[in-house]
Design goal:
By secondary structure, this protein is mainly α. Helices cover 62% and strands 0% of the residues. The chain is built from 57 helices and no strands. It starts with a helix and ends in a 36-residue tail after the last helix. It comes from Triparma strigata.
Length: 1300
């Protein structure tokens, strides 16, 4: 009763407003008091009285201020009632009746009616002009609705329906706000019937009304609609797949494309919120981009979010730019999160997505009117009229206009395939009655404008429809005319440019179609129905969800498409595909964030985004995208490198963070980094190259440019700038050649001469290609921060120049490791890297364009780096060596001496490291051979390096092929001409031959080796005789190897002659050591030769020119008969012993070949005469020691005894020799007693020593070391070389030949 009384005070119009206010205040207090709880049993009755009071409260006669207060009290009171007693009022029974309109049974008004009466009162009455009341009313109603939805009010459907309908009637943003609150409080799954109604309501009328309102101008509407779409996605996305594709396309993307600036800001904010939602992007990608029937919504949303990331056309403070850059960072973070997910799929990808991408390529070709689109389609489109028709009918994204053109192309005789496709296309339709069938036919393509094309389409449709049993028509012509007439009517009624009074009326339409069906009229009702049907609904091409809705009439058609459900997608399943399809857009976003950074935090965010991008590319194995990022970072780094020089690095704190103890901490913002963005980019790029060196491809080009710039400014770490070189005998690095000094000096001078240290602009490694590619990006000028007195930088870093700082920072990245790591990739990857490093074009003398002054130095560095990559993997060197070979060939053809020097060092070093005697040797030896083509005047200054390299090769490698030795000897001959390389060559040959001479001998290059060694022996090169003695020993060793191998063979005789001639000349020299060694080695060599292995004329030449002309005896001091002869007695004696021994060995063979009589016999006798004369000279040249006399006597005795053997009796040569020797000695005053028992004087024929005695004497002489043993063997070298080989076996019978 008390409540009834209070209610009457509120509803009676005669009651003043102050009384109404007091009554409502009392009601509020009553509800808030404990007393009210005692009446819970009659709560429904009290609530009904309260509702009547509120609903019938009048505001017309109350002042504005009083009305505001009273309405506020009503709303507060209602909120309190609902919050406190909703459970009792509403109940929680799940068996609620189906959704229906409120108060339909005539009972008391429902709670939803109360809410909306209050809400409409707030909006529509005069008091809505009060902001306080509006805001308060909205707040209170929101609380009411939340409470109702939280308690699962059975009238949720009614509330939503009222809100959805009212929001397009009053166009009030408050309805949208309430709808959003309803959706936020909505939970589905409690009641099936109610849930089905709510879902249907949201899918249909709610979506339609939201799409309508989205085209209303006003930021309030836009903001609320975007918010509602986001809320709906969170709550109902699994139930509204089609609707959300329409929403995002027709609202978000449409606004970003053509909305106002404010609306675009709101759309970007909405997308940012959407991205921050867990799994949102993953589910969008998994449900749309991987669905053949849907658009690539994920890609479209990301591209829309990044639309304004570049600020070139806007001011830096544009909110859209800021939001787009935040979006780039957020999307990149999302990529990394998905990478870390346990379900992350690093490789592969969705087969459906791959097919979709392939189909898209076909669609693009078709849409661009490419005549060969069918050939490019492959197995995706069946190569038949039926297959093409099915493709055009079913495939999403085909241009409707192009489809219409394709189907209508004619005439039939000229385009028979297109006509077949058209009739096949018509078989895919499901025909019902006339107009629905015509609508279905025209649904999927846009009608061409040409009348002939329309005619062909309508004719084909009429034939197909009539064949299907058209009930409305008697003839096919009637169908054709009516179809054409419908097209005209549709255009007439819906042309927006036509005035209404001029449009066709129903009577006009009926009159125009008289007698078209075989002369008969069609049913009037049928025609009138067609007219009104067309007037009510225009024939339109079907709109797809991927196309933005621009016409309200298209909305219903879209929403009528069969609904589909979204599926649950695991977070990391599509991680790689999701990143790959947006990678270019993300990279552009990261670049914009970095380039636009003015604050240190922004610069750090930009670098972090790049690093995340690189990690994603590395994790997913995306080489192309990774290299795009490296190229971009190095572009920034290159611009910074141009500023490096002797200037002081201004920001000590920044330097400390980059070089100090915690320089590797990437999570800390670099103080002052915004002023050194290029340096940060360079550091990030180098770190990525080191970490993922195997993925770097075209990024190497840009990396080299940065390295070249740093090298020219002395800012490149030693590990990269120092090139591999050879050392001298003590292990010290060889001094720089004048070519290197000139090249590096030229580069330094050029850098100094360029303003601001601009470096190799316009020249460089690729002739400034980067400037063309990258344009003119420049490091923005950011003023350095003020000096900080408490800088953490240690003293070692203070005052450091930018060159020193960059050298340290780059050094920390250990880029040299990157080149080694790159070699561990696939063979194809290594080949690519080497090719990139070597792809510079070497200038030849025919070129007219002068290279940059830095070019030679830079090309040398690239060659060095390429060789490091090649040497790092011996297993694949055979595949990459041809690249080096071709590059070196170009270098040798050029005219850059320092580059040729580096090429020689690289080749010899590579041979040393890679040679294992296998297949690589043939390839390498051909390349090394090119060193021989370097100009001799240039070799003079690089001979030490070539010699040192050859020295290492000869010491460590074993060669067995003639080709290999020929090339090595050519290189040795070239280098030996110059003193700086000669010593290395000789010691290398010495070590090689000391190990084994079989290699050079077995391949038939022993004589070639001897010819080279003879140059050392004779001092052919600059008169250098330092290695003459040792080289003669080596010649003896090589000849010994030739004999052991069964030689000398054909062709070796000339070598024997050269050896003898050379040694013969050396025996006459002033250097005693050289003379003695020449005599000894000549005797050794001739003693090893089998007489029959050398041609007769060769022997005669050796005797005539060498053996029979020993060194002469000269008087050099004293006078008169008591003069002292200073004679190299050992040399003279050794030569005579060699002569005598060789004569005894060869004469039997020469007698057989030349004959004992006649001309040949005379020649041999003359040789014997000369031998006798030489013995006489020796005997008469007595020295103080008597050594020459005694040695000669022993040789004479030996020859006389041997001449008495059976072998020398042929032709009487033996007897003649014995006689001549004895005669000459007798003339010299030698007593006949030396010949022993029975010795005969000149011409005597006494018995002489018996054959047995002769043999005993010969054996004794051989045991004592031969005829050179005079003087008791005390003289040095007297017994080292006997007339006979002491190792030879004794004669077994008189017919045996003496063998040395």
């Amino acid at each position: 009763m008390y409540c009834n009384f209070l209610s009457s005070l509120c509803t009676d119009p005669r009651v003043p407003g102050t009384v109404t206010y007091d009554a409502l205040t009392v009601l509020v207090r009553l509800i808030n008091s404990k007393v009210f709880y005692d009446f819970r049993g009659k709560l429904k009755v009290i609530y009904d009285l309260y509702m009547d009071a509120v609903l019938e409260t009048k505001f017309e006669e109350i002042t504005r201020t009083s009305s505001d207060i009273i309405l506020s009290l009503i709303l507060t009171l209602t909120t309190g009632v609902v919050e406190r007693f909703s459970f009792d009022l509403l109940g929680t029974s799940s068996s609620s009746p189906p959704p229906s309109s409120s108060s339909s049974d005539g009972g008391p008004p429902s709670l939803s009616s109360l809410h909306f009466t209050l809400f409409k009162q707030t909006v529509n009455t005069t008091i809505t002009s009060s902001p306080l009341t509006s805001r308060h009313g909205l707040t209170q109603l929101t609380l009411i609705i939340k409470c109702l939805f939280t308690n699962n009010c059975s009238s949720r459907y009614d509330i939503l329906k009222l809100v959805i309908r009212e929001m397009v009637v009053d166009y009030s943003d408050m309805y949208l706000s309430v709808l959003n609150d309803c959706l936020e409080s909505l939970t589905l799954g409690e009641g099936e019937e109610e849930e089905e109604g709510i879902v249907k309501l949201l899918r249909g009328e709610c979506c339609k009304n939201l799409l309508l309102l989205s085209q209303v101008e006003g930021l309030e509407y836009t903001s609320l609609i975007l918010r509602i779409i986001f809320t709906m996605f969170l709550k109902t996305r699994n139930l509204m797949k089609l609707q959300f594709e329409i929403f995002f396309t027709s609202v978000h993307l449409r606004i970003l494309e053509a909305g106002s600036v404010g609306a675009q800001v709101l759309a970007l904010e909405s997308l940012l919120e959407f991205i921050d939602s867990p799994k949102a992007l993953t589910e969008v990608y998994g449900n749309y981009d991987v669905d053949l029937d849907c658009s690539n919504l994920y890609v479209s949303l990301v591209q829309g979010l990044l639309k304004f990331v570049d600020s070139d056309q806007r001011t830096e403070d544009d909110e859209r730019t800021r939001l787009s850059r935040l979006g780039a960072i957020a999307v990149m973070e999302g990529v990394c999160v998905r990478m870390q997910d346990a379900n992350c799929v690093v490789s592969g990808g969705s087969e459906v997505k791959k097919k979709k991408d392939r189909i898209q390529i076909v669609v693009d070709n078709f849409n661009s009117r490419n005549k060969n689109w069918r050939e490019a389609a492959g197995d995706l489109v069946e190569d038949s009229a039926e297959g093409v028709a099915r493709f055009l009918f079913e495939t999403k994204g085909v241009d409707r206009t192009v489809v219409g053109e394709y189907l209508s192309k004619g005439p039939k005789e000229k385009y028979p395939f297109n006509t077949s496709v058209l009739y096949s296309y018509l078989t895919l339709l499901e025909y019902t009655t006339f107009l629905p069938s015509l609508r279905l036919f025209l649904l999927r393509f846009r009608m061409p404008g040409e009348a002939q094309c329309i005619d062909r389409l309508m004719e084909a449709f009429s034939e197909a429809y009539f064949e299907k049993g058209a009930k409305e028509f008697k003839t096919g012509d009637g169908v054709f005319v009516m179809a054409f007439s419908i097209i005209m009517l549709n255009t007439d009624l819906h042309n927006p440019n036509m005035e209404d009074e001029k449009r066709m009326t129903v009577e006009d339409f009926v009159r125009n179609n008289r007698g078209i069906d075989g002369g008969d009229d069609l049913d009037r009702d049928f025609l009138v129905g067609l007219y009104h049907d067309i007037k009510g609904e225009e024939i339109q091409v079907q709109q797809t969800a991927s196309e933005a809705v621009t016409d309200v009439r298209q909305i219903d058609g879209l929403l009528k498409q069969s609904p589909s459900l979204m599926v649950q997608v695991k977070e990391g399943v599509h991680a790689k595909d999701m990143f790959e399809c947006i990678a270019p857009d993300l990279l552009a976003g990261c670049a914009a964030v970095f380039e636009g950074a003015v604050e240190d935090e922004d610069a750090w965010e930009g670098i972090r985004s790049f690093e995340r991008y690189g990690e994603a590319c590395g994790g997913f194995g995306m080489e192309e995208e990774f290299n795009d990022m490296i190229v971009l970072l190095l572009r920034y780094g290159r611009e910074f490198c141009r500023t490096v020089g002797p200037s002081i690095f201004k920001n000590e704190e920044c330097l400390y963070q980059l070089l100090g103890e915690n320089a590797g901490d990437c999570e800390k913002v670099v103080v002052g980094g915004a002023g050194y963005k290029g340096l940060l980019a360079l550091r990030a790029a180098l770190g990525m190259v080191k970490r993922y060196a195997g993925m770097v491809r075209n990024g190497w080009v840009n990396l080299l440019e940065c390295l070249f710039l740093l090298r020219s400014r002395q800012a490149l770490p030693d590990a990269l700038s120092e090139m591999e070189d050879f050392a001298d005998a003590e292990g010290s690095r060889l001094p720089n050649s004048p070519f290197r000094e000139r090249s590096e000096g030229r580069a330094r001078e050029y850098v100094k001469g360029v303003d601001g240290g601009a470096g190799s602009e316009g020249g460089g490694f690729w002739g400034g290609i980067s400037k063309v590619v990258f344009g003119g990006w420049e490091e923005p000028e950011v003023p350095p921060p003020p000096p900080t007195p408490d800088s953490p930088a240690p003293a070692a870093l203070r005052g450091m120049t930018t060159a020193e700082a960059v050298k340290g920072i780059v050094g920390r990245e250990q880029l040299d490791v990157a080149f080694a790591t790159a070699a561990n990739t696939s063979p194809a990857g290594r080949a690519f890297i080497i090719k990139v490093l070597l792809q510079c074009r070497i200038r030849t003398p025919n070129d007219e364009v002068e290279p940059s002054p830095c070019f030679e130095d830079q090309a040398s560095l690239s060659l060095e780096l390429a060789s490091r990559v090649l040497l790092s993997s011996k297993s694949s060197a055979s595949q990459t060596w041809p690249l080096l070979h071709d590059h070196v060939a170009n270098i040798i053809k050029g005219d850059l001496p320092y580059l040729q020097e580096r090429a020689a060092v690289v080749l010899l070093g590579a041979f040393f490291h890679l040679d294992d005697g296998g297949e690589m040797r043939d390839m390498m030896i051909d390349t090394v051979k090119m060193i021989c083509f370097i100009k001799k005047e240039w070799v003079r200054h690089m001979a030490d390096r070539i010699g040192s390299g050859l020295n290492r090769i000869l010491k460590t490698s074993t060669f067995a092929k003639a080709k290999e030795w020929d090339i090595l000897f050519d290189l040795c001959s070239l280098t030996g001409e110059f003193s700086s390389g000669r010593g290395y060559i000789f010691t290398g040959l010495q070590n090689c031959l000391n190990e084994s001479v079989e290699g050079v001998v077995d391949c038939g290059r022993g004589v070639r080796c001897i010819a080279l060694l003879l140059k050392f022996s004779k001092g052919d090169w600059e008169g250098d005789m330092r290695d003459s003695v040792e080289s003669m020993k080596m010649i003896g060793d090589v000849w010994s190897g030739i004999v052991d191998a069964g030689g000398p063979k054909a062709g070796d005789e000339r070598g024997l002659v050269e050896i003898c001639s050379c040694f013969h000349e050396l025996t006459k020299g002033k250097d005693v050591k050289v003379s003695k060694m020449a005599a000894e080695q000549m005797g050794r060599i001739l003693s090893l030769v089998q007489p029959k292995s050398v041609a007769c004329e060769v022997w005669t030449s050796i005797f005539r020119n060498v053996l029979l002309n020993p060194p002469a005896i000269h008087m050099v001091a004293g006078g008169g008969g008591g003069g002292v002869y200073v004679v190299n007695e050992e040399v003279r004696v050794k030569c005579c012993e060699t002569m005598a021994r060789t004569a005894l060995l060869c004469f039997p063979y020469l007698v057989e070949e030349m004959g004992g009589t006649g001309t040949g016999g005379d020649e041999l006798k003359r040789m014997v005469d000369r031998i006798a004369e030489l013995f006489k000279e020796n005997v008469t040249a007595r020295s103080n020691t008597g050594f020459i006399f005694e040695s000669t006597i022993h040789s004479c005795i030996n020859m006389v005894n041997v001449f008495g053997l059976e072998e020398f009796k042929k032709g009487g040569l033996g007897a003649y020799g014995k006689t001549r020797i004895k005669e000459e000695l007798k003339r010299a005053g030698v007593d006949d007693e030396i010949w022993g028992e029975g010795g005969a004087g000149p011409g005597g024929d006494g018995p002489g020593p018996s054959q047995e005695k002769k043999r005993e004497q010969v054996a004794r002489v051989r045991e004592e070391g031969g005829g050179g043993g005079g003087g008791g063997g005390k003289e040095e070298g007297a017994r080292e070389n006997s007339a006979f080989d002491p190792s030879a076996p004794p004669l077994s019978n008189p017919q045996d030949t003496f063998v040395a």
